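Q: Give me the 3D complex with copper (II) ion.
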Amino acid sequence: MLKNELNEPTTLNFPGLPLPASQLGIGGVTQRPIPPGGEGVYRFTVTPDMVGTHLYESGMCYHAMHVHETTFWLLAEDGRPLPKPRPMNVLAIAPGETADVEFVADVRGDWMFHCHILDHMMNPDDEVDMMGGLVTFIHVK
Ligand SMILES: [Cu+2]
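A: Here is the predicted complex, encoded as structure tokens.
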């Protein structure tokens, strides 16, 4: 469920997932936007072969995504499954592209998942904490 806490109508888009047109998230075209304060429900089934991380570059940048501690496997590009998953260390993703990846989380700890482009890993106006931007951690328990 999406509760819109923005001051403007919004929708969600899930590129690569097989959703009906009414849930594609194209506001005003295939779906009525969710008004401020309103709620919308997206329903879809995630099958075992879809477990992993779905990446979508919704902006105007190119990224070089990398996860520490493991090799990840590219399963699908732009929603199309690959005939054979491809092992990756760094995944290049362009504007509008999607990628579905998975990996085995077999080492406990915090795995850094980030873009290798230096400018994308920094908050240039933040003098207290330089690391930011396209950096996150995968917590493996
Ligand atoms: Cu990047």
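A quick observation: The chain has a mean pLDDT of 83.
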